[in-house]
Structures are given as structure tokens and as C-alpha cells.
Amino acid sequence: MRSHRGRRLLLVPALLCALAVLAALPAGAVGAGKGVPGRNGTGTGGDSVLSAQVVKLYADAARATQRYEAGRQKAEVERAKAQRIEALLERERREIGVLRKDLGRIASAQYRSGGGMPLTAQIILAKNPDELMRGQRVFSQANTAVGNAIDRSRRAEARLAKDEARAAAAWQNLEKRNAELAELKKGIEQKLEEARWQLQGQADASVAAGSCRGAVRLDQPQTDFGEWVEPLESYELSAAFGSGGERWANLHTGQDFAVPIGTPVRAVGDGHVARVSCGGPFGMEVVLRHADGYFTQYAHLAAVAVDQGERVDTGQWIGQSGTSGNSTGPHLHFEVRITAETGSAVDPVSWLTARGVRLG
User: Fold this and answer.
1) Is the dihedral of CA 336, 338, 340, 345 positive or negative?
2) Which of 294, 302, 340 is nearest to 321 (CA)?
3) 287: left (phi > 0), else alpha (psi -120 to 50), else beta?
4) pTM (predicted TM-score)
5) Which of 57-66, 85-94, 152-161, 222-231 has the highest mean predicted lDDT (pLDDT)?
6) Greatest CA separation for the chain
7) Which of 134, 136, 238, 261 is most buried (most C-beta within 10 Å)?
């Protein structure tokens, strides 16, 4: 399987769904012709409590995500700072090495030239006053050079010690930030996983009852799509059309997309909602009828965001992926049919490719 545009955390879309869950009415099955909830309906009793819990859980995760992003940016700044300091320390270590070599050369030169000879001995051994003065000048210059070299070395070593302390502090801050981020990320993942399975639990209850809860309206961001689009923004392709296996009595009739529970599912093209149903092997599903006469099915959902008979646009969120019905794990079962019913499926990958949409 290949990842499409990278697999990333879908927290914000899931948050939008959870907020919409709060506004959803538990209702009879749309496919059965029972009442359809309005956009602003409210639930009662236990459903309202559960919806409020899910909303709070997603809101907490959203706030934690903002903190995670801010912390990640700070960690990158600290890392760059620590790396700059490390580069400076390496340069200073090389400079100190050069200074120490200079000191060694100066000391050797003094020893060879008698620079360390006492002044009395120099007066006795000097042949004339000029020679004595020249010797004193050389001695003074040598002492000055040694003094300057020692001062430079001491300053460099003091600066190195200070910078090493700064580098150690920077790396400690980075390690602390990384530990905080790891803990924060773990908390986000745990909260998000709990919220996803709560959402799936609602779907499973609806499927078991054979009665859909009604459309969960999603506040979708404005995005421009072409005439046709993939059913998901990011995914991994799993079971393909026509593949066999123990999961199906016959060959697989659609294309599966492995995605986490709660991932927004998109209408691949303009059309009308032909059916919204809960129950049976496909669990919670939406079937769209397109202008060219073909039908597309979106199955094993955790929530639906459209009502039967409603018009939809290309790329519009029509539900959220899940693992309802006969499903071995979270994924979207996408199918293309000649009719609205099973038994008329065509290869969805070829069908999309012919419309300019390539999966993979």
C-alpha cells in the first residue's frame, strides 16, 4: 500500500464532526422512510450527554494540538540555537589549540636565546652597553609576547567554559521540550482514539438497530475541486476491486481505503443522495447518483452528513469513515455501480481514472 500525500493526524476534521454530533437528532432510518432531522435539531437524555462528552473530548484535543504545534516550533528554535553554539565551541577549541602551540614556540625560543637568564648574568656577559640593551629589548619583547599569548589563551578558555555551559543548557532545554512534546502527543493520541471509538460506538448502535441517527452536519472549509475528486484526501489503498479472500463470498466489489475512524469522506462528483441506510454487511452507508447515471457507494461509515434526496457537490463531505457492518478494521469501502443496488459494480479505479482522477 502507498500513502497518498502523507498520512497525517486528522484532528481538526474530527473536531468538526464531533461539534456537529452535538447538533444531530437521533432519528429513524432515512432509508426506511422515517423522519429526517433538521440541521439544528437537538437530542435528549443520554444522547445529549454522550454528545457533550465527545465534543469536550475533541475540544481538549484541539487545544492540546495547538500547544503541541507551538511547542514543536520552540523545540526547533532551541535545536538550531544548540547547533550554532556547538559550532562556535568547536571553533573556539581549535583557536585555543593554536594559542597553546604559540605559547610552546615562544617558550622554546626564550629558552634557546637565554631569555630566562638573570639580569646580573646578562650584565657580566655583555661585551658592551649596546649588546646589553639589545638583549634587554629582546627579553622585553619576548615577555610581552608571552604575556599577550597567555592573556588570549585565558580569555578564550573562559569564553569556552561559558559557551559550553550555554550549550549544555540549550540541549537540556531541548531534551525537556522533547519530553514534554512526547507526553503531549501521547495524550492527544489517547484522547483522539477514545473519541473516535465513541463515535464508532454510536454508529454500531445505529447499525444494530437498523436505524440511522440522522445527518451530522459538517462545517466544511471552502475548497475548489474539479469535476471529479478522490473520496478521501489522504489514505492508503488496501483491498482492490476483484480481489478474493475469506472476507467475501465472492470477489471484492469495490476499492478499500485504509483510514482512521472519523476521516471525512467526500463525494467524488456532483449528484444526489440516492440512499442513506444503516444495517446489513455494509453497515452505515451512503449511495450517490451522478448525472451520468452511475452510482457511487461509501460504506462502513461511522457517521453520515447528508440526507436522502439531498443534492451534493464534488468534494462535499458526506460522512465519516468507520468500521461499521462486516468490517475487519477502519476503512472506506468505495464502490461504483451501474444501478443503485449490489451486483452491478464496475472497477472504481478505472472509472475514476477515466474521469481524470488517479489513485495511489
Assistant:
1) negative
2) 302
3) beta
4) 0.60
5) 222-231
6) 126
7) 261
341 φ, ψ (degrees, to nearest 5): -100, 165
Measured between alpha carbons, how far is residue 304 from residues 107, 111, 142, 203, 234 in Å?
A: 86, 92, 89, 9, 19
Q: What is the structure's pLDDT at 263?
A: 87
Question: What angle do helix axes 11-22 and 129-209 make, rounded to 10 degrees?
Answer: 40
- Cell match 569564553: residue? 159
For 85, 195, 350, the CA distances from 89, given in Å and listed in that order, are 6, 48, 60
Q: Which residues are registered as beta bridge partners of 273?
A: 288
Query: In angstroms, what is the C-alpha Rg of the chain?
Result: 37
Cell of 221: 472549509
* DSSP letters for 49-76: HHHHHHHHHHHHHHHHHHHHHHHHHHHH
SS3 at position 79: helix
Residue in 262, 296, 324 with CA at minimum distance from that of residue 9: 262
- For the stretch 184-211, pLDDT in tens is 778 877 877 888 888 899 889 999 998 8
Are the C-beta atoms of residues 209 and 32 closer than 8 Å to each other?
Answer: no
User: What are the distances in angstroms from CA 94 to CA 88, 98, 99, 105, 155?
Assistant: 10, 6, 9, 17, 14
Residue whose C-alpha cell reads 475540544 in the numeric block: 59
Which of the residue ranges 2-11, 166-175, 340-349 would you say has the lowest mean pLDDT?
2-11
Are 218 and 311 a contacting pair, CB within 8 Å? no
